[in-house]
Predict the 3D structure of the following.
Amino acid sequence: MSGIVLAAATNSIAAAPRLGKTGLFVPLQGVEVYFNYYWLRDACPSAIDRQTRERVFDISALPAPLRASTAKVENDVLHIVWAQEDHKTELPLAMLAAHNAGGIANDPADLPRKQWYGDQYPMFARFPQREIEHNQSVRARFARALIEDGIALVTGMENSDDSLTRLVHTLGPVTPSVDGLYFDVRLEVEPSNLAFTAKALELHTDLPSEEAAPGIQFLHCRENTVEGGESLFVDGASVAEELRLIRPEDFELLASHEIPFFRRHANWHYKSYQRVIELDRLGEVSGLTVSQHLQDNIDLPQHLLDLYYPAYIRFINMLKEQRFVSRFRLNAGECIVFDNHRIVHGREAYSAHSGRRHLRGCYTDRAAMRSTYRVLASQGCLIDPVNG
Ligand SMILES: [Fe+2]
């Protein structure tokens, strides 16, 4: 919902808008709905520049308090004449009703998350890379899967650096991390991360040590002939929402307190505070921040830790329950793409000398991905004329 105060009255439908002291009571679909004067003035279409599509109206330049002198409804349009300036505002009732129903909503990217569990792998949305690149409807469905499921599997990737670059650019620009624009997950002689060894990699989200942890992660499997090394993926939102049901006091602790994460090496020392359970503006779980290998010593008060640690350990153990974990082998030519905040990932250990394993990765921003989806949706790209 938006910040607007929606004081829907219980009065029967009014013939005309009613002027209040601080706002207007507008008859909408059988009830009077309250709209603040400042909001109505800011919502005037003249506030947005046609060329730049940015707001060019300065609400702070008006005398306060803002008042309307008259208001009427004609042909389903609200007409307001303002008291302190020579200006009229016209707003379609349909726009006000839509706002009343869903806040700023009417956002095609504001789609509910579909929670999933350990049996999800066969149901992961799958898209051939070539289709994502050349078919706008497929690209829209790819972005939609990332919004709803938080994960998608791309097939038919070429064994080249350019292949990953072209794929990420279908959603947004590559966002850098301390590792640069791209990273390679394979055995290194002097590894700076557990990922660059053959050891098991516990369930985690990437780079919580950065102030804004990466959004959408891409892992392009270039080569995988080793024994072991199965990939592990968990819908963190599913686990956290279940925790909220069965242990609400644990959920509250993990969603309320920030704990420190670090990443240290010869030439860097990152540190950031994050909440283990991230909530969106509606209070729903939007993601997790979990990384035991990048977690600093927790500096919450010691007596609070008497409660926090047991809750944290119970939650980490819940994440590992097989009913939540999708376990599968990532094959050469595939790229797993996922929301790095919502989807917790890991890897089983592999035999270092049994073959070769090389994943190449990068990130793009979640807002960039949603932007791509909004543009495609506005262009009507959601229905594939070939595949339905
Ligand atoms: Fe990772």
About this structure: Residues 195, 204, 206, 345 surround fe (ii) ion (CB under 6 Å). The first strand starts at residue 18 and ends at 19. The CA atoms of residues 117 and 324 lie 5 Å apart.
